[in-house]
Amino acid sequence: MNRRTDAPTHRPTTQLDRETARINRMTRLGMAGNIGLAILKFAVGKLSGSLALIADGFNSLTDVITDIAVLIGTGLGSRPADQSHPYGHGKLETFVAGLVAFGVLGGGGGIIWSAVQSFITERRTPHGGMVIAAALVTIVVKELLFRRTKRVAVECRSAALTAKAWDHRSDVLVSGMVLAGGVGALLKWPYADGVAGLAVGLVIMAVGGRLIFETLAELSEGSAGAEAQERIESVFREFNEIQGWHRLRVRRLGRELVADVHIVLDGQLTVGEGHAIVQRIEDTVMTRLQWPINLVIHVDPEGIHD
User: Fold this and answer.
1) Which of 12, 181, 187, 253 is deepest in the core (most CB within 10 A)?
2) Between these two residues, 98 and 222, which has the higher pLDDT value?
3) Which CATH number goes with the domain that contains 36?
4) φ, ψ for residue 174 (rounded to 5)?
5) Local structure of 37: helix, strand or coil
6) Distance separating alpha carbons of residues 56 and 42, to the nearest angstrom
7) Span 122-132, mean pLDDT?
């Protein structure tokens, strides 16, 4: 017997709508922060002559572009299921997370190129005090954005917003390197700014590479992880009627889960009795996970496992 929970039953539109609104609010807040920091970095970088700070300003501009991509992707990904997409449009949001990752990677490459150029051409030592002040402001703002964005991303299970959160954290590390370059400038080390710019680019590329790997894992039908599977299995263990289960598979589809499993029930049960048990299992799984899920349960009579 197959029993599938259709999207309208286990994908409450109101829940996804609330989550989408939270994601959009957080993204717009991050965008405002990135615009303000970009202006600050370009202005101070120009006045101080800091290549690392100007490169970091371009990084903030890239962040604004990826913020726009997240807003678009989240809106498209939250669209309800239709005839052409019976499981919904959740992977559009995952795809946008990949675009964000590639944007981060490309930004890092551009910064590395600028840093290499600075070693070739003679540059004046930047004004270290101005660089240090701008870097400290950026560190504080970006760390606050990281913590708030990460919390919303976890609560809303958003891959795109998770990518943005770690982008904020990478910017904290980047600004730490810019800060180190400013200290080097105060000590009159001529290559401090270029080295800081090079380190900035390498960190950004490393973060971009990790985000790309995680996005590809989800797009290639990777597992949703051990925690989600363990929570589902813990529900099975609570039902005395379940004599065993196998072939449990759980994957992510945007901000939702898709799972299927074979459970073993007493072969003497009627179809109606089996249906009632499956319905209770589905309801319990949904409550326990607190995560929209499309669950398919195949019932095997005792002694017959296919």
Assistant:
1) 181
2) 98
3) 1.20.1510.10
4) -60, -45
5) helix
6) 8
7) 70
The two counts, helices (H) then strands (E), for the chain are 9, 4
- The answer to whether residue 306 sits within a structural domain is no
Cα-Cα-Cα-Cα dihedral sign, residues 205, 209, 215, 216: positive
Helix (H) or strand (E) holding 5: none
244: which strand partners? 264
- Shared domain for 140 and 13, answered yes or no, is yes
Contact, 100 vs 164, CB < 8 A?
yes
CB atoms within 10 A of CB 280: 13
Q: Contact, 197 vs 52, CB < 8 A?
A: yes
Choosing from 219, 249, 275, the residue where a domain stops is: 219
Same domain, 18 and 102: yes
pTM of the model: 0.61
Q: Please give the Cα distance from 56 to 201 (Å, whole number).
A: 9
Instruction: Tell me whether residue 171 is in a domain.
Output: yes
CA 26/CA 94 separation, integer angstroms: 17
Neighbours of 151 (CB within 10 A): 12
Residue 262 phi, psi (nearest 5): -105, 130
Q: How far apart are CA 290 and CA 19, in angstroms?
A: 13
Expressed as residue numbers, the domain containing 79 is 2-219
- For the CA atoms of 272, 284, 12, 95, the dihedral, rounded to the nearest 10 degrees, stands at -110
Whole-number pLDDT of residue 10:
46
**Inter-residue contact 252 to 293 (CB < 8 Å):** no
Strand, helix or coil for residue 253: strand
For 74, 99, 129, 137, 176, the CA distances from 62, given in Å and listed in that order, are 18, 11, 26, 19, 19
Residue 290 and residue 143 share a domain: no
The model's pLDDT over 57-83, given as tens digits with 9 standing for 90+, comes to 877 887 887 788 778 777 766 666 667
Q: Are residues 215 and 237 in the same domain?
A: no
Alpha-carbon gap, residue 215 to 205, rounded angstroms: 15
